[in-house]
Amino acid sequence: xxxxxxxxxxxxxxxxxxxxxxxxxxxxxxxxxxxxxxxxxxxxxxxxxxxxxxxxxxxxxxxxxxxxxxxxxxxxxxxxxxxxxxxxxxxxxxxxxxxxxxxxxxxxxxxxxxxxxxxxxxxxxxxxxxxxxxxxxxxxxxxxxxxxxxxxxxxxxxxxxxxxxxxxxxxxxxxxxxxxxxxxxxxxxxxxxxxxxxxxxxxxxxxxxxxxxxxxxxxxxxxxxxxxxxxxxxxxxxxxxxxxxxxxxxxxxxxxxxxxxxxxxxxxxxxxxxxxxxx
Length: 279
Known about the structure:
By secondary structure, the chain is of the alpha/beta class. The chain has two domains: 5-100 and 234-262, Rossmann fold, CATH 3.40.50; 102-232, Response regulator (Rossmann fold, 3-Layer(aba) Sandwich). The chain is 46% helix and 18% strand. It has helices spanning 5-20, 39-52, 68-76, 102-116, 133-150, 164-177, 192-200, 216-223, 235-252, 272-277; strands at residues 58-60, 81-84, 96-100, 122-127, 153-159, 181-186, 208-212, 227-232, 259-262, 265-267. The protein is elongated, with a radius of gyration of 20 Å.
């Protein structure tokens, strides 16, 4: 239940693509790891089990832990590796990384906030973890846009560890301590607790959110006027592209580009349903 919705949409994309390739004897084994577990040990034990099944390739959605030993095992066993969702820049042996153009996502969020934030107000940025590559890039893009074009005050960057309870607590603390907060950019799919806190504590109309991705709760907060826009990363498409690139390599020997970037989209209350429908 603590698995972020972002990865659930990636899983959906992978399963759709697996179904499309089922006639070519392509099968997938899904393993799920909670950030509340001893993650590296859990992945290592499952990887050993998968190696016994003679897997032909691996797709990994990395988070913010040290994967060095795990990646070495994958490489030593000559298993093609696709990184999905975020990159590991210290690891140069992967086949391809499929992810959103995160720097552009951050720039888009800052530009949107710059359109409505009044001069006396400040914005805050919520990420999952500063060690996740795509989160670093979103922060960089956000500040680049602020410094060059938007020019509003940023109260700080806050890590929620993709934990709903922590996001709620951080939001409440921030809003009670900083009366100047007028906008929050939630750079992950963990926006629901932020929006719920705004509603619970009477800040509707005072604090607006630019969120990430699209799901049912978020659409409700758009209708309530809390979320003004969301940056859609299309995780379902990311999942499909990862498996397509991997299959092309395994079946035809076709080397993919080193990095496949998905262009983010802006969804507003007026078009969010259409954006979802087109995916």
